[in-house]
Design goal:
By secondary structure, the protein is mostly helical. It is built from four helices and two strands, in the order E-E-H-H-H-H. The mean pLDDT is 88. The structure holds FE2/S2 (inorganic) cluster.
């Protein structure tokens, strides 16, 4: 299914890019801009962004690894000393 008509990006392209980024760096934060860059493209009109984000969220590889979740809270607690 075409997600971005301006740049001809499909849902499979988005999932493949996310999978590739997660394999390359398990700790990376994956953003729409990084997906565009991984595909060698850049956003144009931005009209696809709601569907683009929804497609990204449907990818299991988008999630931040469980061991890295909550680090912000942990560092805030540690910073109160
Ligand atoms: S439809 Fe994706 S940038 Fe225009």
């Amino acid at each position: 299914m075409i997600v971005c008509h301006c740049r001809n990006i499909t849902d499979d392209d988005i999932h493949s890019a996310i999978d590739w980024m997660r394999r390359a760096d398990p700790e990376t934060l994956i953003t729409p801009g990084k997906v565009y860059r991984a595909l060698g493209k850049s956003a144009d009109c931005g009209g696809c962004m709601p569907l683009f984000l929804s497609t990204m969220r449907s990818s299991a590889a988008l999630q931040i690894p469980a061991e890295l979740r909550g680090l912000r809270n942990a560092s805030a607690v540690g910073g109160q000393d």
